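Data card: per-record layout.
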Amino acid sequence: MVRINTMAEDRMRSKGYMSFLIIFMGLIALLDNYLSLIETDAVGYIIAEFGMTLPEFTLWQGIFGIAAFLVFILSWFADLWGRKIGILILVLVMSVSALLIGLIGDISVWIFFILYAILILGTNVNLWTIPISEESPAKNRAINGSVAFLIGLIPLYAVIGIPIAENLGWTWMYGLFGIFGLVILVMWFFMKETKRWETDRADLKTRMGNYKESVKLLNKRDWLFVIISGAIYIFWNTSFKMMTTTVSIYFQDVIGLDAETWTSSYTFAGLSTILGALTIGIIMEKLGRIFALIYCSLGAAISILGLAFVYSPVFLILTYFFMASFLGFLLVYITEMFATKIRATGLGLALTLSRIGYVVGPLLGTALLPDVASAATLGTFQMYYVVAAVIILLPLLSFIWNKYETKSKTLETIQEEVKE
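The structure for this 420-residue chain is written out next.
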């Protein structure tokens, strides 16, 4: 144990570099979060542009969402060629596709959805969590991850999305952040490869020349956790996708909220995600990861039901708060549970499974949502949100197979204990 702790201390970076890394990874998280959530306000413009109904949009959203299953390729690159190269490819995938939507996304529905499919290949991959997890001391790992996550949760999508659409056109709701992504790549040149990856690079280069070989590095325990974490991610992705695609239409066209009230409510919902990121880091460090999962799952389910049956924007705010907390838990816990040599691959496999939510969520919308949203369709939307609430409770079933607590443990200690 002494040797393990000494090795961990030897790998520690300076405070200045860790501050830089947290900011850079936070800006990548901001790019990711914006491009993931801008569709909430963009959906209405897209439907109007291409003459679609909401169920038709969710149908094509689900079909093209299949492309997101290729996410494992990005994670494989991060294990084979290093975290720095993985981050570069990730940012380019998101930024270039978003910029192209800005330039040519309104030419045809097919061009838009093809570019959209490439875009979502890069969103919610969360490779930015790995450098922070691998470079942070054990006592600061959850806090550092939460700070970067907090930066990513600045709700620019709620504040600038509609003004951009009204002044430049809806495609530039995506396009401007494509430019943003390319600009922040300047910081990439100052990023260092993680010391943990450098330590294992010879073995990784030898054994991961192809993806098949990298997958062979996973043992039975790793595969079990891939399935468990992937399933939890599926449920989160499905439920949140159901929310983000419809809440704007629900509150404005069904509940009757005026545009100004909706914008302010949505902005507060976005700000609540920051509070969610701050509090979940503290909860995980003080009360543990297991308690955090229970807290997030129950809180999100209750909030979604309140949104459906109380109609108050307060429950929209609470839903985003708990969903952000849930994601914060996932980003920390999943990266902790895999050994360094298979961390990005394991995360990539879990994220590949999570992409099922990119298909199931929209297809549930196609099956359950009405063609025209109005006050008369309130009952249909309520049923839709009840389904979303039940889905976000399903992660609690994971305790049947896994209750391992990682609080305050080094990555080396976790790696040794999960082998037992």
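Known properties of this structure: The chain has one domain: 15-419. The chain has 21 helices and no strands.

See the next section for split statistics.
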